[in-house]
């Protein structure tokens, strides 16, 4: 489980090595006087990264609790944001709508590693507010061993091609949502209501896909799903919603039906909701909704292969060597 002292990622993994893509500049953010270049992450972005940047800039964030809201504007691509070994925590406590996130990435070509983004909103029997830890709307974005902590709408995967590797994602209601074309690999998905009092079932995903020709969708590979509360795997935010779980470990937090049609009852034939080679007590599909799909060999190849998000090789253009989905 996530801890504010650091995320839950495996600290013994192979260290990431530099690639031939060079880093043009390094910036250090530290709350320790006299140690870093800036005391806040936003100042490092605003003042340390030039407009229309075309070369990778490394912003290293020393361990600490950073109470700020971070916005990476569209005009500042090629930022590599890296936390200390145990993870550097950024938190934002104000309640608000989905566009008021702790981290908002509007630029393309963004990389974050070992960062923790946390957001809290109200959640009780009478009232629930959105609390977005991260909003990711640029293209060619990767998060490596990061953590996203919230309750409702934790991770707004707005749109674009995104890769989440060994990340921790915590929430309860639609906490991975949006219209991103994204792969979540080796991630820990945690259902937690904390002390919020709700005893009903939550929902892990709310993926939006408006047409059968849209290339987007959420693919979860080799993930672990567990926690304190029960939930469905997903419900549609759009009529052609697409979510696939592959070789993932489900604890008993997954309700037997698995999925819900939400406001699209009668249009279930349009969804692409599928599980393939998953295991654990929550992976029993005997009581799943009858409209859950079974992937054909070609569909499995298209969705689970490297080409789903990386057909043009963008994952090879980062300043550290990344695994491929």
UniProtKB/TrEMBL annotation:
Top-level taxon of origin: Eukaryota
Record-linked InterPro entries: Pectin_lyas_fold, Pectin_lyase_fold/virulence, Pectinesterase_cat
Enzyme Commission number(s): 3.1.1.11
GO BP: cell wall modification; pectin catabolic process
Reactions catalysed, as given in the entry: [(1->4)-alpha-D-galacturonosyl methyl ester](n) + n H2O = [(1->4)-alpha-D-galacturonosyl](n) + n methanol + n H(+)
Molecular-function annotations in GO: pectinesterase activity
Residues covered by the Pectinesterase catalytic domain: 28-310
SUPFAM superfamilies, A to Z: Pectin lyase-like (SSF51126)
Entry keyword annotation includes Translocase: no
Pfam families: Pectinesterase (PF01095)
Transmembrane segments: none
Pathway(s) the chain acts in: Glycan metabolism; pectin degradation; 2-dehydro-3-deoxy-D-gluconate from pectin: step 1/5
Keywords attached to this entry: Aspartyl esterase, Glycoprotein, Hydrolase
Main function: Acts in the modification of cell walls via demethylesterification of cell wall pectin.
Family stated for the protein in its record: Belongs to the pectinesterase family.
Protein name: pectinesterase
Species, as recorded: Stephania cephalantha
């Amino acid at each position: 489980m996530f801890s504010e002292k650091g995320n839950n990622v495996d600290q013994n993994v192979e260290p990431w090595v530099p690639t031939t893509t060079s880093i043009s500049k390094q910036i250090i953010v530290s709350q320790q006087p006299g140690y870093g270049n800036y005391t806040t992450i936003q100042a490092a972005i605003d003042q340390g990264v030039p407009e229309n940047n075309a070369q990778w800039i490394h912003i290293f964030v020393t361990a600490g609790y950073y109470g700020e809201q971070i916005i990476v504007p569209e005009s500042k691509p090629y930022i590599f944001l890296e936390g200390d070994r145990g993870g550097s925590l950024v938190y934002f406590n104000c309640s608000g709508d989905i566009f008021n996130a702790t981290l908002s990435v509007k630029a393309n070509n963004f990389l974050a590693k070992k960062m923790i983004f946390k957001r809290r909103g109200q959640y009780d029997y009478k009232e629930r507010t959105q609390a977005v830890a991260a909003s990711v709307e640029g293209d060619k974005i990767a998060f490596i061993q990061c953590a996203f902590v919230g309750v409702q709408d934790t991770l707004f995967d707005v749109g674009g091609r995104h890769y989440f590797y060994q990340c921790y994602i915590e929430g309860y209601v639609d906490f991975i949502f949006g219209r991103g074309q994204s792969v979540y690999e080796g991630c820990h998905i945690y259902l937690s209501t904390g002390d919020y009092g709700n005893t009903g079932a939550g929902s892990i995903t709310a993926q939006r896909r408006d047409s059968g020709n849209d290339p987007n969708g959420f693919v979860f590979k080799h993930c672990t799903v567990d926690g304190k509360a029960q939930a469905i795997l997903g419900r549609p935010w759009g009529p052609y919603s697409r979510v696939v779980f592959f070789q993932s470990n489900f604890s008993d937090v997954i309700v037997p039906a698995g999925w819900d049609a939400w406001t699209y009852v009668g249009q279930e034939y349009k969804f692409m909701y599928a599980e393939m080679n998953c295991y654990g007590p929550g992976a029993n599909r005997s009581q799943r909704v009858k409209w859950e799909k079974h992937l054909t060999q070609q569909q499995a190849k298209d969705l689970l292969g490297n080409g789903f998000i990386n057909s043009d090789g963008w994952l090879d253009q980062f300043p550290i060597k990344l695994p491929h989905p």
